[in-house]
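debug: dumping io for the single-chain case to check the tokenizer round-trip. Nothing else runs in this session.
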Amino acid sequence: MNRRAERLLISAGPGRQKGAALLIALMAAALAMVIAVAMMERGQGNQARTQALLASERSYQFAHGMELLAASLIERAEREGASSAYLDGRWTPPFDVPGGMIQGRLLDQNARFNLNALAHPDPELAALALERLERLLVHLGLNPLIAIELADWIEGASRPRPGSAGDSWYGAQQPPYRMAGTRLAHVSELRWLRSVDGEAYVGLAEFVTALPEPDLLININTTSPVVLASLVDGLDLDQARSVLADGPFVSPAALVAHPVIAALARPGLERHFSVTSPWYLAQARVVLDGVEREYFRLMRRGASGYDFRLYSQGTY
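debug: decoded output
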């Protein structure tokens, strides 16, 4: 310390020295408090992330249990000789689990129109699927040109005939990209079509599906009148309701032999009907600590058991 500093310190006096020391102590205490708060916040953040990961993992494991329950429901229905109409998408009663509850349901995908039938490798079957999708849209009060745009977009079905209304309409409504024959992964991809707005999508979504296979196979005991009417040319909605009211049917042949259907049936119609459903969507709703999560798994029933294909969380 030089002499000038000594003189300043002496001239400051004991009172001023104590004030400076107090200020330094307060600054040190404030800094320590800021550091402590930051460490607490970081610790709380880490704890919250850990709890969230644990809750998510617990939810997933509970949802996986619901998948096994879904398979058990199907097996029990078959073993007891019950129609798959009993597997109609109703929620199971809630199961209590530590910290919340879980319930599930099965959604029959073969009760819906498979959009990927438009990408069938057989051009005749693809063209037939396009024709039926147009009828489905008409019955739903939606624009049938949606089917034409979808068929052209995936490049797997018949194109509009030159000079048709769809031909000129589509030329002005190019989709955002080309699928080059790739099948739809999910029905929400319909929203890429410029002809499908939010209202049209909501009106169509519950009647269609996008399965990994391009076959159009409808379970006649679980389907809706609008889907049945789309498969049979000349069948109106009232007739479709009347036919389904006479079910359940023991075989596709029994449906085709129905007087209303027999009068309208084309050759080969029977091959598109079934009384069982290989495809189901298993949905689990898990509520833990007040937080609700939903899980979806697309499952296929086959000779070797159940093949769980696609998985998603939150939406499907």
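debug: round-trip ok. Confidence is low (pLDDT under 50) at residues 156-173.
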